[in-house]
Amino acid sequence: MQRALKILAAVLVVLPAGALMLWREGSPPVKEGDKTEAPPPAIPRSRNRGQIPEAQLSDLRKRFMPVDRLVAAMRAPRGSMVLDVGAGFGLNTFALASATGPEGRVTATDVSRGAVDFLSREAAARGFTNVHPVQVSGGPHDFSFYSQHVYDVVLVCDVLPLMRDLSGFMSGIKRSIRPGTGRMWVVDLRCEADYTTVEIGDAKQLVRRMQALPAKSPILRRMDAGVREAIGDLQSADHASSASQSRLLGFLNRLLDDESLWEDSSMDAMLDPALKWKRYVLLGLLCEFTAFDSPADDTLIAQRTASRTLNRMIIGDMLGLSDWLSAFALDVLHEQEFRVLMDWWLYRRPQFLQVMSEAGFERQGHHPIYPFHDVWEFSARDATAAPAPAEK
Q1: Would you state the pLDDT for residue 191?
Q2: Confidence tier at 234 by pLDDT (50, 70, 90)
Q3: pLDDT level of residue 33 (50, 70, 90 thresholds)
Q4: Could you count the other beta carbons within 10 Å of the beta carbon of residue 172?
Q5: What is the percentage of the chain residues whose pLDDT exceeds 70?
Q6: 3 state SS of 152
């Protein structure tokens, strides 16, 4: 850990002033003696090129987010009242509407008038009379609307980084969840997830990309004899053995945890320029985080998240494994948008379960439904019950 901190400091010392400004400019002020930063600014939706129907409803996103699996796990009863918070262009909305049936109701909220109008047109065109799009003019904290209704199921999918006051939102929305039987489902993207067969796809194609790497590639230099044997098997066999595919997958996941990969200066000339500025931003945020007297566990979580995220980007750039970036529009983010997301993943996300507990929620389950997302299920705790200890 100390070695990583020293390297971070050294990297930032030699960064050009313009690169430093990418993460320093716009940073919220911190009062002396107070480690609590003001909430980061929300991403301007009008500037985010991922906030269009073609991005949110792409086949690639649906490949990594098979919505039917999520809806089946949610078990929304026929005739239930469902709230889809930050519904966007309806990735989950219409699947939920099918599950709850015409006797039920799905309220789909969003801050974007364009998204709400799109949902209204889609609902009319597809004959969904139980879908009710609503623009919440005050943003996700517009409790003047939410407080008028009680819901059996609330879904919050891929919007947590955009919430200015997560604790305030969760405390407020709890009052709109049906006591006893109501459920809150939270789906949140993981930038540091393991590689899976869903993402790798054709192992033979991956092997060809590996063989095309320059001899000095840091990925090739980290291959052991067992991995090279697996690559040979995958290259020559008509039907690659599952053991060789598993060995190759294991190698990629070991690379994710290899701190020396993103520290390797030999890769600088090989990286895409867009990846270089993301690297600077992420390193800067991590160094900013570790400058405070943060709890040891939080520091370790932030370091692991930053290291695996950097390595994921590096591996993806070198081996063409960038579908995850495209699927979630992470490849089209502006610098400030990327910084806001990284701020969530490094600073605030590790506190999520504690925030939920303090807001009055009990964790009911963590479901392995999507390869790149955490899927949490919560119930609203009785107001008279004592908060349960938060889980890490």
Answers
A1: 87
A2: confident
A3: very low
A4: 17
A5: 79
A6: coil
**Amino acid code (one letter) for 15:** L
Contact 190, 162 (CB under 8 A): no
How far apart CA 248 and CA 242 sit, in angstroms, is: 10
Please classify residue 391 by burial: count the beta carbons closer than 10 Å to its beta carbon, then call 0-12 exposed, 13-18 middle and 19+ buried.
Answer: exposed
Distance between alpha carbon 332 and the CA centroid of its chain, in Å? 15
- How far apart CA 2 and CA 125 sit, in angstroms, is 58
Strands 81-85 and 105-110 turn out to be parallel
List, in sequence order, every beta strand (DSSP E) within the chain: 81-85, 105-110, 131-135, 153-157, 183-189, 361-366, 373-380
CA 318/CA 271 separation, integer angstroms: 8
Helix or strand holding residue 61 (H, E): helix 59-64
Q: Is 227's pLDDT higher than 80?
A: yes
The per-residue b/e assignment along 204-217, b for 16 or more CB within 10 angstroms, e otherwise, is: eebbeebeeeeeeb
pLDDT value at residue 96: 98
Residue 62 identity: K
Check if the beta carbon of residue 302 is closer than 8 Å to that of residue 41.
no
As given in the structure block, the two tokens for residue 339 are 């910084």
Which tokens is 73 given? 């796990």
Handedness of CA 288, 294, 296, 300 (dihedral sign): negative
Q: What is the CA radius of gyration of the chain?
A: 22
Bridge-based pairing of strands 373-380 and 131-135 is unpaired
Tokens of residue 112, six digits? 């974007």
pLDDT by residue (tens digit) across 40-77? 333 334 445 667 999 999 999 999 999 999 999 999 99
Give 345: exposed, middle or buried? Use CB within 10 Å, 0-12, 13-18, 19+: buried
Q: How far is CA 370 from CA 62, 129, 145, in A?
A: 10, 29, 31
Question: Residue 82: is its pLDDT beyond 70?
Answer: yes
Residue type at 304 in one-letter notation: R
φ, ψ (nearest 5 deg) of residue 157: -120, 120
